[in-house]
């Protein structure tokens, strides 16, 4: 995490300052492109049945900078506080002109919609980008985790991989019940450096994964399936947990198209 500056956002004035940075390029006659936002949420049973504790936000351009938006402390003010141009964070999350990049958006979307009425727009799902690059229907059947994808597809120096891996391991020791931890650690304030590093580790390499796979995937199919994920996560019958979450849900027609492309393209090998 040494190359990333981490800023905690836990007051309305800090929310306004952050919004000013995000929307300064959204003014009339400003030709600069809007920043791409890389996001991940953490909480206690993160879904409609639980709570949101932290939103980790990475802005990769012009320089990588990460923010920990303290939803546990701010509550609705994290989403309703207006910035200098009148936009709230909720407005940005619902504005399709701002690209929001997630790795498996489903439970994040579910929690945002259920607890704060945020209906995400402009979403890209890197998990689906990567899965769509599998050569066959069978190869696409199971979804890969973020940890697996980072370790498999991101080329990083050994020391960087060690730092990232240690941050992920140390964080899981604190929150995973099977390791004697508790998800309540995401609500402890001040937030420990260990948990800050864990949160940032979930967004740190999303820009690189997106760079590798966004131009190699069938954009329209991934966009179609991503939108389906968002809509389903907001439905009354959405199930946030269960073995079905590990399976891809491409339609028969989508799989046919992807199989045809996989037969003639250099896509991902059929590893387990």
At a glance:
This protein has twelve helices and six strands. The chain is an alpha/beta fold. InterPro entries: 3'-5'_exonuclease_dom, RNaseH-like_sf, RNaseH_sf.
Describe it for me?
The two termini are 30 Å apart. The longest helix is centred in the middle third of the chain and has 18 residues, at 158-175. The chain has a 6-stranded mixed β-sheet, sandwiched between helices. It has a single domain, classed as Ribonuclease H-like superfamily/Ribonuclease H (Nucleotidyltransferase, domain 5), CATH 3.30.420. The chain is globular, with a radius of gyration of 18 Å. The model has no long low-confidence stretch (mean pLDDT 92). The protein is an alpha/beta fold and 272 residues long. It has 12 helices and 6 strands. Helix 5 crosses helix 11 (219-233) and helix 8 crosses helix 9 (193-201). 41% of the residues lie in helices and 11% in strands.
Order of helices and strands: EHEEEHHHEHEHHHHHHH
Number of strands: 6
Total domains, how many?
Answer: 1
Average of the residue pLDDT scores: 92
Topology:
Blueprint lengths: L4 E5 L2 H12 L13 E6 L11 E6 L5 E6 H4 L2 H4 L8 H5 L6 E3 L3 H11 L6 E3 H6 L14 H8 L4 H18 L17 H9 L4 H8 L5 H15 L18 H12 L9
Parallel strand pairs: 1-4, 2-5, 5-6
Antiparallel strand pairs: 2-3, 3-4
Helix pairs in contact: 5-11, 8-9
List its salient traits.
single chain; 272 residues; alpha/beta; Nucleotidyltransferase, domain 5; 12 helices; 6 strands; 41% helix; globular
